[in-house]
Amino acid sequence: MMNCLQMWPEPIVRVQSLSDSGIRAIPERYIKRASERISSPASEVNIPVIDFQDLFSNDASLRLTTLSLISEACREWGFFQVVNHGVSHELMKRTCQVWHEFFHLPLEVKQVHANSPSTYEGYGSRLGVEKGAKLDWSDYFFLHYLPQSLRNHNKWPTLPTECRELVGEYCDELVKLCEKLMKVLSINLGLGEEYLQNAFGGKDVGACLRVNFYPKCPQPDLTLGLSSHSDPGGMTLLLPDHHVSGLQVRRGDDWVTVKPVPNAFIVNIGDQIQVLSNATYKSVEHRVIVNSAKERVSLALFYNPRGDILIEPAKELLTENHPALYPAMTFNEYRLFIRTRGPCGKSQVESLKASQ
Ligand code: OGA
Ligand code: NI
């Protein structure tokens, strides 16, 4: 398994170069099956918006209402947005800006960071290593922030000059917010407030940043910026480009387009929290659509369990009528699936269930 992840099966083509070349028709490799394409115009919706400060209000009933709003969003949507989260808006803006600048640097500068499938760290243009696979209309930069042992500043962009410093500050703030959200989710699940954090490995959790770049696309109806997937890790904090929408979330049989609230983070539950909560919380499928008029940048901070710790449904949540739905597995094992096969809906976490 590891061997096949050492290199890409085909030469890498930067989607940005395709877009910049002015082609009118996208290459066959990016044309999705009809069933995966965007069919009818999706409605734009506001997914639940949570004012994080309400959790610290002097008003006990406001605190409880906020907890239950989050609980409902985790059960019903797998997604919510947070405002008043304590992260500086200026830092958010500058970090987005610096990544826009990074993707507009000359190709040779970015190529220095070209990634490989062994760690995915660096500048990439595909997920998965299956030869001949259909590809998504996006490039990205992926880096490790935690555990500290995997943090290697030399693998982060050297240009723009402020990039490394901003990424460090940004990830630091977001990890703090994730720690708080983990407490909220634990309390809502009826577990001790430290439960999820401890289950993730305490201080040894993982955190990675993926900056997605979706170039303009001449035939947006035929492709996707990111195919349908659920996030394999614990929890994701997404900073979407609030000038251009693109993220779609599955609601039953439909896809709805998320209307981003300025300065909010979109929080979504990943597969590991679905497993730990024994499916009380769902990691919901989502995907990204592209457009012909505007490029889009989004920053996804993935907060993950330590790689070598077993993740399994919390014993406290199991009863005779609700037995464990998933076997124990480490995140290192789990994420090989997406790293090999690329984004494929919820097939992985579902297949675990079927194997029981
Ligand atoms: C992701 C993701 C959504 C977006 O990076 O996993 O779902 O809007 N991104 O870019
Ligand atoms: Ni995602």
Automatic annotation (TrEMBL):
It comes from the Eukaryota. Its cofactor is Fe(2+); L-ascorbate. The keyword Ligase does not apply. InterPro entries: DIOX_N, IPNS-like_FE2OG_OXY, IPNS-like_sf, Oxoglu/Fe-dep_dioxygenase_dom, Plant_2OG-oxidoreductases. Keywords: Dioxygenase, Iron, Jasmonic acid signaling pathway, Metal-binding, Oxidoreductase, Plant defense. GO terms for biological process: defense response; negative regulation of defense response to insect; regulation of defense response to fungus; regulation of jasmonic acid mediated signaling pathway. Residues 204-305 form the Fe2OG dioxygenase domain. SUPFAM superfamilies: Clavaminate synthase-like (SSF51197). It catalyses: jasmonate + 2-oxoglutarate + O2 = (1R,2R)-12-hydroxyjasmonate + succinate + CO2. Transmembrane segments: none annotated. GO terms for molecular function: dioxygenase activity; jasmonic acid hydrolase; metal ion binding; oxidoreductase activity, acting on paired donors, with incorporation or reduction of molecular oxygen. Belongs to the iron/ascorbate-dependent oxidoreductase family. This is Fe2OG dioxygenase domain-containing protein. It comes from Nyssa sinensis.
